[in-house]
Amino acid sequence: MKTKIIAKLHEREGFVSSQELCDEFNVSRTAVWKVINQLKEQGYEIEAVPRKGYRLLESPDRMTAAEIRAAITRPTGEMGNEILSFDTIDSTNTKAAELATAGQPSGLLVVSEEQTSGKGRRGRSWSSPFGKGIFMTLMIKPDIQPNHASMLTLVAALAIAKAIGRMTEQADVKIKWPNDIVVNGKKVVGILTEMSAQIDYINHIVIGIGINVHNEDFPEEIKETATSLYRETGVHFKRAQIIAAFLEEFYHDYQIYLQTEDLTALEQEYNACLINCNRQVRVLDPKGEFEGIARGINPQGELLVETTDSNGNTCVRPIASG
Ligand code: BTN
User: Fold this and answer.
1) I want to staple 10 with a disulfide (CB 3.0 to 4.6 A). Which of 70, 103, 125, 317 is the partner?
2) pTM above 0.90, yes or no
3) Residue bearing the CA closest to ligand 1, atom 11
4) Domain boundaries, position 306
5) Dist. CA 154–CA 303, nearest whole Å
6) What ipTM was reported for this prediction?
7) Distances from the Cα of 69 to the Cαs of 35, 223, 240, 252, 295, in angstroms?
8) Dihedral over Cα of 154, 234, 244, 89: its sign
9) How far apart (Å, rounded) are the C-alpha atoms in residues 206 and 211?
């Protein structure tokens, strides 16, 4: 009932009468009053006026299902059809994968205030301090070929870049291929996509996203390269609004991706966000490092790097994300 009352208070600009809440949710006035008091204890500012009812003045920066749903303003399809919100968890990716295996339908979103074993790419850990960031995983079960799945991490990167761009308005939000989001040149978002599949069939994909939102400082080993939305803008954004914007953007771009199972129709938009486009990059290829000019991605999400040999001949090499 708490979630429903929050939704009702969000929906209404003005007052919601106690009677209306009692009638709609089939509970007593005392029960409503208790819930309102619990919400106040959780940081909701609610004005209570006799004979008028309750009015929501301010909601806290919480990542509950109620707050995320209330912030959604565009279609999200199945994305976030179930939202599980934790105070603490080992890893939202691990939880989402477990639930997927146990039969949870596609679209589940798992969110946590902190992670005790947050996972990063290449076996690294992901710093996940309580209340400072968004630690979330979207689980999907797409009916696509497994070898097309790696492109979904670029779809997610584009969606999160657009969501952050929308929220922060003027911040310089860019994608560092394949899926890091940087603001003013420093990393704000990391994405870890994991898949469970057979040779020709995907069981599930978990797209894990870590966003540095309120952090004022960072552990020694990442403090030169990491930043947060707060550090770059001076604003403490409501995390539920960022999550809602991500679900909207991801759903939109995912529909486009599904039409061709590649990035044909998203390539141009992605490339416009690419931080290194038309700049010199160093490619750490296992067969040997080399330098070239990044020319953007192709429809498969590979980075096209133009190299020039000693005779001045140029060639474009597609680099797959690994
Ligand atoms: C990276 O190394 O850049 C990827 C970091 C991904 C971190 C997120 S936080 C939510 C989700 N759960 C995890 O354990 N990892 C991802």
Assistant:
1) 70
2) yes
3) 208
4) 280-319
5) 11
6) 0.99
7) 19, 33, 8, 17, 39
8) positive
9) 16
Q: Is 190 in the pocket of ligand 1 (CB under 6 A)?
A: yes
Clarify whether residues 130 and 245 are in a common domain: yes
pLDDT of residue 288: 86
Token pair, residue 297, equals 């991605």
> Does 287 have pLDDT greater than 90?
no
Q: Percent of the chain at pLDDT above 70?
A: 100
Same domain, 194 and 50: no
The alpha carbon of 179 and the centre of ligand 1 are apart by a number of angstroms equal to 11
Q: Which atom of ligand 1 is nearest to the CA of 120?
A: 2
Which of 135, 153, 187, when mutated, tests ligand 1's pocket best, judged by the most ligand atoms within 8 Å of its CB?
135
Any atom of ligand 1 within 6 Å of the Cβ of 112: no
Q: Residue 110: its pLDDT value, please?
A: 98
User: Do both 131 and 197 map to the same domain?
Assistant: yes
Co-location of 73 and 183 in the same domain: yes
Per-residue model confidence as pLDDT tens digits over 221-275: 999 999 999 999 999 999 999 999 999 999 999 999 999 999 999 999 999 999 9
- CATH (domain of 150): 3.30.930.10
Give yes or no: residues 184 and 304 share one domain.
Answer: no
Q: For a pocket test of ligand 1, which of 86, 89, 109, 119 has the largest count of ligand atoms closer than 8 A to its C-beta?
A: 119
Q: Which atom of ligand 1 is nearest to the CA of 122?
A: 2
49 C-alpha to ligand 1 centroid (Å): 45
How many structural domains are present in the chain?
3
Residues 200 and 128 in one domain: yes
6 and 73 in a single domain? The answer is no
